[in-house]
Amino acid sequence: MKKSVLVFILGWFVCSLLNAQLADNHQQKAQQVFDWVREAQGDSIWEDSSPTVQKAISPQDLNGVWKSLTTQFGPFISQGDWQCEMISVLTVYYCKVKFEKYLLRCTVVFDENGKISAFNFTPDLPEDTVSKKTMDATKVSEQDIVVTTGQYKLPGTLTMPKNAAGNVPVVILVHGSGSSDRNESIGELKPFQELAWGLAEQGVATIRYDKRTLVYPGALWADDGQYTFDTESVDDAISAVQLAKSLPGIDSTKIYVLGHSLGGMLVPRIAQRLNDTEHLAGVISLAGATRKLQNMIEEQVAYLSSITGTHMDAKAEAAKMMSAQPQSYRDFEAAYDPVGVAKTLKLPILILQGERDYQVTMEDFGNWRMGLMRNPNVRFKSYPYLNHLLQEGKGKSTPMEYSVYSPVPDYLITDIAAFINDKFE
């Protein structure tokens, strides 16, 4: 998981003229909900919510939302304009909310009866995400692509080594949780972009794309309420694999999937869905979680509280965050065992982990090693200085590191390229 403990959530349907009046009313209500949050009027939000929401959260929980946000992200700075989507009978409103330390997205969803059926704050992309690094155009070329899964069309980038002799292997990059762009941007950090450029310089192509929940903020409430890991990430990764097979210059027998964070947890699922070795040459889990999300969120809340001096009930906060997810998502997560699925795979697997990562920790790395130690197709490596976003540092990792630029180290890129080229040691 990445960005903060407030991850997950968040189609692309234009508000029609027939729904214009309803949308206007909902926009006013969305702003009213936002104002109630700021004023700690949890009773008002709860009373205007659907029965499902009322069962999942109490007025007291709602009263504490704004205090929790300002404790983690600093004083409130500004609110952006509301944007609208219509998804079947649901009306989705969302806007940017700027705090001193972070930019979030507030989303309010109304059902056909005008009741609040979902409400949350999640990470949003900063307005200015210019990379500190530049692409070497003498070695690397890029072109726009679109990854398509049914009604969802995700803009992406194909990065190729220049002047390659023959077809080249390709890696599909799969994001962590939240609404990530194709680069996994957090301020000036763009780990997927830097991985793509570095791998291209070593003869390996990549496909990266904007995540479904970024391009379609209402995707969580689509699919008839059956939101799961598959609809969040896996389905689109599979579509990217199918796209890779059709692209000129790509060796269709050497398609790899690299997942980071949540994506790293899901690479066994992606390989399983693609019938193991039938479509893939291998998978790479980079900071891939193995434990249940509620336990990890609880651990993260406790860790952040310890380094910030705040006093939060980690168990209560974790339970609250998980209860806000659709039941379909929680059921899928409870049933999914990434290590167990990985045990059944025959294709080559590489497990990589930063030892300073406080979000996905060395406990997860140990679970991978313990569960897969007898599988001859699996390789492992950890890096003493890396945090969750692949930055080098020393001592305890903190969220403040994410606001200071440092590049993805060359040795990590070299190890990934070596695995793809059957030279990993």
Brief synopsis:
It contains 15 helices and 13 strands. By secondary structure, the chain is of the alpha/beta class.
Task: Summarize the topology.
Layout: H1 20-38, H2 42-47, H3 51-56, H4 59-63, H5 65-73, E1 76-79, E2 83-87, E3 90-99, E4 103-110, E5 116-123, E6 140-149, E7 152-161, E8 168-174, H6 191-201, E9 205-209, H7 212-215, H8 229-246, E10 250-260, H9 262-273, E11 282-286, H10 293-308, H11 314-323, H12 327-335, H13 338-343, E12 349-354, H14 362-372, E13 378-383, H15 410-420
Parallel strand pairs: 8-9, 8-10, 10-11, 11-12, 12-13
Antiparallel strand pairs: 1-3, 2-3, 3-4, 4-5, 6-7, 7-9
Helix pairs in contact: 8-9, 10-11
Task: Kindly describe this structure.
By secondary structure, this protein is an alpha/beta fold. The chain has two domains: 17-123, Roll (Nuclear Transport Factor 2, Chain: A); 140-420, Alpha/Beta hydrolase fold, catalytic domain (Rossmann fold). It contains 15 helices and 13 strands. The strands form two sheets. Strands 6-7-9-8-10-11-12-13 form an eight-stranded mixed beta sheet, sandwiched between helices. Strands 1, 2, 3, 4 and 5 form a five-stranded antiparallel beta sheet that branches. Helix 8 (229-246) crosses helix 9 (262-273) and helix 10 (293-308) packs across helix 11. The two termini are 28 Å apart.
